[in-house]
């Protein structure tokens, strides 16, 4: 928080120095003056502007890095939770058969439902236990669009909930001897 306040102070200081510099150059301050004094005054204000600008940029960069590291930590935490959920999902789907067998069964059941290609993608993720938000993120579509697809899928399959949807797709793979 202190860095953000410092950034505001430095930004305000920069604007004030720049305004003073321009007014000084316009001859508003000091009236008639010698050229040496004018050059020294300009130099002093120019150096002060450069220093304040460099400090502002440094503080701004530190704030950005701090925000990025916080976001990185947050993203890492979210990703690790997603990986844990994904592995749990895959274990539950794969535990009832191999992934390929499960997907083949899924496609055969869905074939009779006449789903569009996008609805099929949504249905697969729905079957795997994804939330609407996760489906939207995975397919790069809005959550409201996911809800519409899910609604169409439910209508075409004549189910009312995710539980019914998954039950309709229940898969008992053949046991190998």
Model regions low in confidence, pLDDT < 50 over at least 5 residues: 172-177
* Structure annotation, total helices: 7
**Main sheet: strands, sense, barrel:** none
Number of domains: 2
* Share of residues in strands: under 5%
Multimer state: single chain
Helix content: over 70%
Shape: rod-shaped
Arithmetic mean pLDDT: 75
Count of individual beta strands: 0
- Rg from Cα: 32 Å
Q: N- to C-terminal separation?
A: 66 Å
Structural class: mainly alpha
Query: Order of helices and strands, N to C?
Result: HHHHHHH
Write the layout of secondary structure elements.
Blueprint: H1 2-25, H2 35-95, H3 99-111, H4 117-127, H5 132-139, H6 143-157, H7 162-168
Helix pairs in contact: 1-2, 4-6, 5-6
Plain-language structure description:
By secondary structure, the protein is mainly alpha-helical. Helices cover 79% and strands 0% of the residues. Helix 5 crosses helix 6. The termini are far apart. 8% of the residues are buried. The chain has two domains: 86 residues; 73 residues, Winged helix-like DNA-binding domain superfamily/Winged helix DNA-binding domain (Arc Repressor Mutant, subunit A, Orthogonal Bundle), CATH 1.10.10.10.
Q: What are the salient characteristics of this protein?
A:
single chain; 177 residues; mainly alpha; 2 domains; 7 helices; 79% helix; 0% strand; rod-shaped; disordered C terminus
In short:
With 177 residues, the protein is an all-alpha fold.
């Amino acid at each position: 928080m202190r860095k953000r306040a410092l950034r505001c102070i430095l930004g305000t200081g920069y604007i004030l120095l720049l305004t003073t510099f321009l007014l000084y150059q316009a001859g508003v301050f000091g009236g008639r003056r010698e050229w040496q004094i004018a050059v020294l005054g300009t130099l002093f204000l120019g150096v002060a502007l450069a220093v304040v600008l460099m400090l502002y940029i440094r503080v701004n960069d530190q704030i950005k890095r701090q925000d990025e590291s916080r976001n990185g930590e947050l993203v890492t935490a979210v990703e690790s939770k997603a990986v844990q959920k994904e592995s749990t999902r895959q274990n539950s789907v794969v535990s009832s058969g191999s992934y390929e067998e499960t997907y083949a069964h899924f496609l055969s059941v869905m074939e009779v439902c006449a789903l569009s290609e996008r609805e099929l993608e949504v249905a697969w993720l729905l079957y795997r236990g994804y939330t609407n938000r996760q489906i939207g993120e995975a397919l790069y579509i809005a959550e409201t669009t996911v809800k519409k697809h899910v609604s169409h899928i439910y209508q075409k399959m004549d189910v009312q909930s995710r539980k019914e949807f998954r039950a309709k797709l229940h898969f008992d793979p053949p046991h190998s001897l």
